[in-house]
Structures are given as C-alpha cells and as structure tokens.
Amino acid sequence: MMRSSHLFLILIVLIWSTAARALPEIQSWMTKKGAKVLFVEAHELPMVDIRLIFDAGSARDGEQSGVASLTNALLGQGASGLNADEIAQGFEQKGAKLGSGSERDMAWLSLRSLTDSKLLQPSLELFGKVLVEPDFPKADFKREQQRTLIGLEYQKQKPKSIGSKAFYHDLYGDHPYSSDPSGTSETVKALSAKDLREFYRQYYVARNATVAIVGDVSRKQAQALAASLADALAEGGKAPALPDVAQLGAGKQEFIEHPSTQSHVLMGAPGIRRGDPDYFQLYVGNHILGGSGLVSRISKEIREKRGLSYSAYSYFVPMRREGPYLLGFQTRNDQREETLSVLRDTVQTFIDKGPAEKELESAKNNIIGGFPLRVSSNGKIAEYLAVIGFYDLPLDYLTRFTGNIQAVTVEQIQDAYKRRVHPDRMVTITVGGALKPDDSDS
Amino acid sequence: MRGMLALVLGLFSVVSFAEGLIHEYKLDNGLKLIVKEDHRAPIMVSQVWYKVGSSYEHDGITGVSHVLEHMMFKGTKAIPSGEFSQIISENGGRENAFTSQDYTAYFQTMEKSRLPVSFELEADRMRNLTIPDEEFLKEVQVVMEERRMRTEDNPQSLTYEQFNATAYASSPYRLPVIGWMDDLENLQVGDLRDWYQKWYAPNNATLVVVGDVDPEEVYTLAKKHFGPLKPSEISAVKPRLEIAQRGRKEIKVEAPAKVPYLMMGYKTPVVLTAERPWEPYALEVLAGILDGGDGARLASELVRAKEVAASAGAGYDGHDRMENLFLLSGTPSNGYTVKDLEKALLEQVQRLRETLAEAEELDRVKAQIRADKVYEQDSIFYQAMQIGILETVGLSWKDAEHYLERMEAVTAEQVQAVANKYLVQARLTVAELVPQPIDPDQPPRTAEAAHVH
Q: What is the CATH number of the domain that holds A270?
C-alpha cells in the first residue's frame, strides 16, 4: 500500500528542484594575512555563527600528547589580562556563547551571538582577545591539567573509551593519529604552561586558519569581521603536511578485560581521506552496509534479525589523512563471538557480492531525498563550511553533492570495497568481562 | 536561492516570534494538531506525542512504555515489520522515537512534500499495531542490551537510577524509564498489547508539525489520514503524588569506577503543581545563577576559586508532569572527597537562602534566556519538541510564548524565597558513587574508607 508508485513518482520529480532550492551560496575570500574565509549570508534569524578552525589538533602533539587539547581548553581561561570569570561572564551578559574544541585534525574556537550591535560588538571584542591574546595563566593551567587527569580517569571507567583508544593505537602505530587527543596521565603531567604557549604561537596563526561565518550579516560586515579576527593573529605559516598512513599488514585481535556486563567490540582499519577519489563510492556503499541506522545490513543482521545488540554500525571518519573505517557493536559478554562472526560475515558478503541494485536505489533516495535536511539550519551550514574550508574541498562541494551520489554504481561500490576494505587485515578490539567456564565462548 | 528566500523572510522575522504562526486544530476523534510555520528551509518535522511514559507504569511492568516504543517499528497489518523505517528512508527521511517519564514520541524529519508519507504511516500504527510474539522476543533482548549499555555498565547512570529510586517514595518518577532488568526479563507480549490498547488512540495524542508547510493543508491531510481512527476511552490517570519527605535521605552506590560522583536533589514543585505560579520560574533562575554558563557560581567558585570540584552542575525543569527534583551534581577534584564537594554545594545553597542574588547575576541569566529564544529557532526539531512536551504534560504551547516574560519577571527576592522554601534538608536526597576497583585483582573499597584521607 505504502509503496504506491504515486508517492515514489513525487519523490523522483521533486528531489532535484528542492535540493537546488535549499542550497546555501558560499562566498569565499582570503584575509590579508592569508586566512581562508567561507561565508553564508542568512538573514532569517537575528544571529550569527563564527568559527575559526586551525590545523592544530592532536596530530600536532608530537611527543607531548595532550598539548593541543589543553592549549585549546586554556584559551578562554585568561586573555588580555582578563580572568576566566570576566571572560565567561562577559559573553553571558550579552547572551553570546563561546565554544571551543579539538580533535585529531582540527582545533576550533567559536562564537554564537545575536546580531544586535549592542550585543555583538562587545562579544566580538572579547572573542578577539580570547583568540589573539590568551595569557595561559599558570594557576589556570595547573587546574585544567588536573581536570584533564580526572577526565582521563573517567574514560577508564567507560568500555567504549577504553576500546576506542586501543583501536586508534593499533591502527596507526607511529602515525600522529595513534595517540588520543586528551593524552595520557604521564604526558599530561609532563606539560607546562610554557609548552601550551609555544604550541599556540606555532599553530594559532592566520595562515593556519579557516574562518567560517553564517548568519545575519552582510558580505561587507563579514569581511570586516573576519579581518578583525584573523588578521589580528600572527601571520605564521601552514602546519607541515602530515605523514602518510601505512595500511595494516595483518589482522590483529586484542581483548581488554573490564568488569562490564557487555562487551564493546570495535573492528576496522585506516579508511579514507577527505577528498579521496573513492569517497562517494565508499560513502554510499557504507550507507548500505552499516551507515543508515536500522535499515542498514549490519543493523538488520545483528539487531533486527537476531536481537543481539542495541547498536550495530559502521562508518568512515574521513580525515586529512586516512581516518578509520570503524565497525562495531555492544552485546552481552557471552554473545560477543557469535555477534562478531555475524558482523564479519555481513561485511565479507558485501565485499564479495556487492550491493543489490535495489539497495543502491534506496540509499540514493535516502541521501539525495534527505539532502535538504543537511543544510537546513545555520548551525549545520557552519559545520559544512568548517569542513569544506579546512579540508580544501571545492566550494561547489554541496552543489555537486547530490550529483556525485547519483553517479555511483553498484560496480564502483564493489570495486572500491574490494580495493580498500580488507576484513582479514583489520584490528579487532574487544573490551568486556571475562567469561565463566560454562559460558558459550571460551 | 537561500539568499532570496532570506530576503523575503527577513520582513516577517518579527512576526515569527509571535503566536500568529502557530495554529491549533482538533479532529472529531480528539486528536490535537499543532502546526508551526517555519519557512527557512524546504523541510518539515512531524511528531506524534502520546500521553504515556514510565510515570504511567507500576511495579512489575516497568519499561513497558519504552519497549512498546520499540515495537511500534515492528509492523501493522498493512506494513510488515521493518517496512516503516525502510519507507521513511526511501523518502529521504530521518526518523526515530523517544520515551521519557511523561511521554512517548515518534518523529520523521523530511523534505516538506513527504508529509503525507509520515501521516499515512503514523496514522496506521496508532491503531493497527500487530505486536507479533517472535518480534517481541527479539526486541526485548535489544532493549536489555540497551539497558546494559546505558545503565548497567555506566556507573554514573547506575547512581542516578538508584538516586531516583531513593528520592521518590510514592511518585512513579522513582521508576527507571528503561525499566528494571528483572521486569524486562519477565515482560510478556500480552503486557505490551494491553498497554497499546490502553494508551494509543487519537484522543490521547498530539500531532505536531513544524516547517515549511501550509497549516490548512496540514489540517486537511491530518483529517484524511488520522480522521477515520476511532477514539478510545482513556482512563483517568491517578494522581500518585509523592508523599511528604520527612528528613534527609542518603545512599551510597558501589560500582566498578575510577571517579567518584555526587548527586543531590531537592523535591520541588513544577509549573502544574506550584502553589504560586512564579515559583518554578524562580527555581529556574536559581539554577541559572548556579550553573548558567561557565561564569556562573558553580564554575567560578567551586571549580576555579576553591578548586573543590572538577565539575559541578545544577539543573531544574519546571515542565514535568509531576513534582520533581532540583538537581545538583559533581565530581570532586584531586585531593578532595565527595563529602568536601557536598559541603561546598550546601554552602552555595545556604548562601542563596541568606543573601539576595546580585542584580548583575539575574541580568546575566535573563540575557542568556532571551538569546536562547532566538538560537532555538535555528532548529525546527527543537521547536516541535517544545510544543510536544508542553501539550503532553498538560500545559499548552502558549506557555512557551509566555516563558520569556515569566522569566523576566523573576526577582531576587523570589529566588531567595524558593531557596528557603524548597532547598531544605527535609527535602534532600544525596547519593554518592563509591568507585570499586576495575582491576579484578584489587580488594574492594568500602564507602567508609573512601571518606578517610
């Protein structure tokens, strides 16, 4: 009844027109000192989102694992002689929100503000101070260092975090992606405020920055705004290229005992880069295999058919260099081997036989038909701008997105999976409880 | 194209804050429909809210509302199991569902022309769910896995669950939404069928649509799909009020963990139950004074100045169906114990009772609320959610429109008054997570030993 041709006819006709209508127009330019700016004008709501993204994630930590993350966390803790209270309260009394964060590739600082100039101007000035004149006060450093150490302890009580750390470690070996962005107790204890200052000086510079702006400001305002922030930074230089990621030569299995009722299993290998030539084939392929929630093959096999897990999934994390391809689930300890073999079989079958035409059609309908949802808010558009700018994706990335999806064929997916995904050379991490002798797996 | 759309809409941006763009309808079978126009992007969200959740449950069947939520994807006479999600997916949609103490809700976010697909499917499963035995047997296992993941293996969630079960004596808020494991293990398919018959009917539901839609067209479409559904006799919900607490309660939760954790909760009224209508709003401002951002008292004083807390938070939500808890929680920093943190939090409460909050603090809280009112319009999902919650707990979407003025009206004296009336020892429950070794070879720690040093 629901699969009436009527509804599906509408689908085909409407997709293209609406996808085109929903597209934000991206404007881009460089500031004097060489920061790249991406801007989308959106006047519906009297607010603006500003985000500065730096190539200053934990991939830049070197021996000092955790330094990128702590540097980022300290920015708002003291700047231009203002203390943490004055900074936080300064934003709050204008209803503005300061944000910051760092991962492996990027570190960022963001501001969300109303565009009423009585509110925006003072918030922008304060934001500029946090960005350009952070003080890294010793006492604040020591406190944040201690809080990071407690955070590291906290992660040790979460099987998922334990598994994720081991996973990256085994996947990346000597590559900078190997270590966890929050560092280890040893490396964090060894850091000083001076280390943070030096890290900041090298990486929080105009040539290493991308500026994303979305909101109720004109191009002229956006230009002035971007210049006032990015050009106040030292010019500096781009961070050097990251080393290549080596593919795994052999599979590896690791078991980490943890007193949990479930086992968390993570399986994978280095996957794809941003701008990877196989990106769309693998993205659509994974959508079918494990990336589309309950209707994906992995979820159907593990959850829908067998009731073995609440969440079973797979996804690529495209990064500057090959980010991980990650497949996983959690299940009661005594079911972990059974579930793992279902996962392995599902992946192997997908590689051997490829997706069915019908599955590909459904995946395209979902991705293309749902495209307007991806760019429906200022917040989501700002995220896209950050990724497009930071990873040097073409400015028409969003315009061409649906066309790129539409062009993918069953053969291309199968070919890309055969070349790029090798289950026999994957790392498998299991974090969970030891089994009693009478349990089903030994 | 977004640019041009923006230009036109810019003229109406003031109007969009007013009540004019929300439309309320009622179908003959009792289904309420609320439509909010938001034409920023060619999308819509459609949500069906049922007045049922864990606070409608009783001992022995805890978690039944949530398991039923899972079963709603497991087929009707017309749509076999698994097809619902497949159809939504093929139509470019994102969908899911959630269950809380006070409600169960289902949603689809889709390109705007897909609304008929959403309505047809939701109307169908409102009355025609089959709940096959074999699907139930698998799905209840999935829910048990969900419980293991969210609660059993998460020491802070475990603490929260036991804290709740201690704080409330007679209120159904003491029951975990996901249900006790033992109840899940003994749940029968008949329990689910009964629950579905009892609560799933148009006259116990609210349909909320927000997005680039025409309200009259939505109404016509709703009548077409939901109109033919028969209403049920919905039995009145008994009040099940919380009995008066007579003194402080305290528990310790021992679980494998690395970091101690403290939860404190004071029994507080909500908008629906408050003796004086301003009290819940004063409690919310009070929460903002303590934890309205990194510049508020807990971060400023406990995390930074005293360094007694590695993290500390406060929270209150006046939009629950029944009397609830004003919560304080946190993790002590290195060198401090949970007792030290508790003392510091109690000092904060004491200060609120004795001294008026400063004008600047109140201004800061209100400035953030004003701004948040604008920011939240960036998400149609959030807007729909707000309407759905208010309507389902027994308030009205109009309360969201008046929220800002009610918050603006709160005075420092009112904040002090609610602190003195509600943040008192006799209404307090305290739970401490006492970490046990994760390494199985280490000896267990006792709660008492953890306090020394």
A: 3.30.830.10
User: Which residues of chain A does B6 touch, with a Cβ-Cβ cutoff of 8 Å?
Assistant: 41-44
Question: Of A348, A345, A393, which Cα lies nearest the Cα of A38?
Answer: A393
Task: Flag if A295 and B364 touch (Cβ within 8 Å).
Answer: no
Q: Which residue has the tokens 């807990």?
A: B298
User: Does residue A324 lie within any of the structural domains?
Assistant: yes
- Of the pLDDT bands very low, low, confident and very high (cuts 50, 70, 90), residue B401 is confident
Burial of B267: CB neighbours in 10 Å, binned 0-12, 13-18, 19+: buried
Residue whose structure tokens are 């769309």: A280
Let me know if residue A290 belongs to a domain: yes
For residue B413, the cross-strand partners are none
Phi, psi at B153, each rounded to 5°: -100, 15
DSSP helix/strand/coil, A158: coil
Q: DSSP state, A75?
A: G
Q: Which residue of A has its CA nearest to B39?
A: A44
What is the layout of strands, in order, in the sheet containing A252-257?
A252-257, A427-432, A262-270, A324-332, A312-316
Q: How far is A248 from chain B (nearest CA, A)?
A: 30
ipTM, two decimals, is 0.94
Question: A369 and B138: CB-CB below 8 Å?
Answer: no
Of A21, A40, A306, the CB nearest to B1: A21
Short-list B259, B384, B365, CA closest to B314: B365
- Residue A170, amino acid: D
> A183 with A266, same domain?
no
> Which residues in chain A come in under a pLDDT of 70?
1-22, 437-442
Q: Which of A197, A230, A263 is the last residue of a domain?
A: A230
Q: Are residues A96 and A215 in the same domain?
A: yes
A201 and A300 belong to one structural domain: no
**What confidence tens digit (pLDDT) does each residue in B170-229 have?**
999 999 999 999 999 999 999 999 999 999 999 999 999 999 999 999 999 999 999 999
- For the CA atoms of B73, B79, B83, B85, the dihedral, rounded to the nearest 10 degrees, stands at -50
Q: Clarify whether residues A176 and A287 are in a common domain.
A: no
Q: In this structure, are A173 and A129 located in the same domain?
A: yes
Q: Which member of B43, B333, B364 has the closest CB to residue A372? A: B43
pLDDT digits (tens, 9 = 90+) for B267-288: 999 999 999 999 999 999 999 9
Give the DSSP letter of residue B152. I
What's B301's DSSP letter?
I
Residues A259 and A168 in one domain: no
Identify whether residues A137 and A281 lie together within a single domain. Answer: no
Best mutation target among B7, B148, B213, B379 (most A Cβ atoms within 10 Å) is B148
Identify the residue among B1, B2, B71, B134 best suited for mutation to test binding to A, counting A beta carbons within 10 A and taking the highest.
B2
Query: Is residue A238 in a domain?
Result: no
> Has residue A244 been placed in a domain?
no
Q: Which SS3 state, helix, strand or coil, does residue A79 take? A: strand
Catalytic residue flag (residue B279): no
- Are A181 and A268 in a shared domain? no
CA distance B24 to chain A (A): 24
Closest CA to B59 of B165, B143, B190: B165
Nearest-by-CA chain B residue for A258 = B438
- Number of domains chain A contains: 2
Joined together, the tokens standing for residue A409 give: 């064929």
Both structure tokens of B411: 């005075």
Structure tokens at B156: 């802070």
> Given B57, B69, B342, B391, which residue is catalytic?
B69
Domain around A390 = 252-432
